[in-house]
Amino acid sequence: MNKKEFINEVAKRSMVTDYMVNEIYNISSELVAEKLISDEEVEIPKLGRFRLSTRKATIYKNLFGKKEKTVAMTTYPIFKICNSLKMRVKNGHKYDKSI
C-alpha cells in the first residue's frame, strides 16, 4: 500500500475528504521528524515507537590488509512495532467493516 492508497482508504473509512487526510498525514510525519531531530522518542499508541539510534565510527580492513575503509558515526531512525499489533497480525485479524 502506498501513500495515496493509504490516504484514500483512511478518507473512505473516516468519511472525510482526501485533502484533509493528506494534510493530517503530512503534519504527522513532520511532527515525528521534528521530535526525532530534537532527540525525543515518539510513541504512537497501538502502532509503535520511533527513536534515534547511533552507530559508532568503525574501521574496516581489506582482506589483504592494504586499504582501510572508515565509516563515520551515523545516527538513524528506528521504528519498533508494539506487541499488540504484532500479535494482531500474527493471529490474522482483519478489519471488520461492520463496526
Write the layout of secondary structure elements.
Elements: H1 3-14, H2 18-37, E1 42-44, E2 48-55, E3 58-61, E4 68-71, E5 74-81, H3 83-90
Antiparallel strand pairs: 1-2, 2-5, 3-4
Helix pairs in contact: 1-2
Structure description:
By secondary structure, the protein is α+β, with helices and mostly antiparallel strands. It is built from three helices and five strands, in the order ααβββββα. The protein has a three-stranded antiparallel sheet with strand order 1-2-5. Strand 3 and strand 4 (68-71) form a beta hairpin. Helix 1 crosses helix 2.
Helix-strand makeup class: alpha+beta
Give the spatial strand order of the biggest sheet. 1-2-5
In round numbers, the mean pLDDT is 88
Q: What is the succession of H and E elements?
A: HHEEEEEH
Annotation, overall tally of beta strands = 5
Global shape: elongated
Output the number of helix runs.
3
- The N- and C-terminal alpha carbons lie at a distance of 23 Å
Helical content class: 40-55%
Largest sheet, strands/sense/barrel: 3 strands, antiparallel
Which range does the strand content fall in?
25-35%
* Quaternary status: single chain
Rg result = 20 Å
Give a brief outline of the structure:
With 99 residues, this protein is α+β, with helices and mostly antiparallel strands.
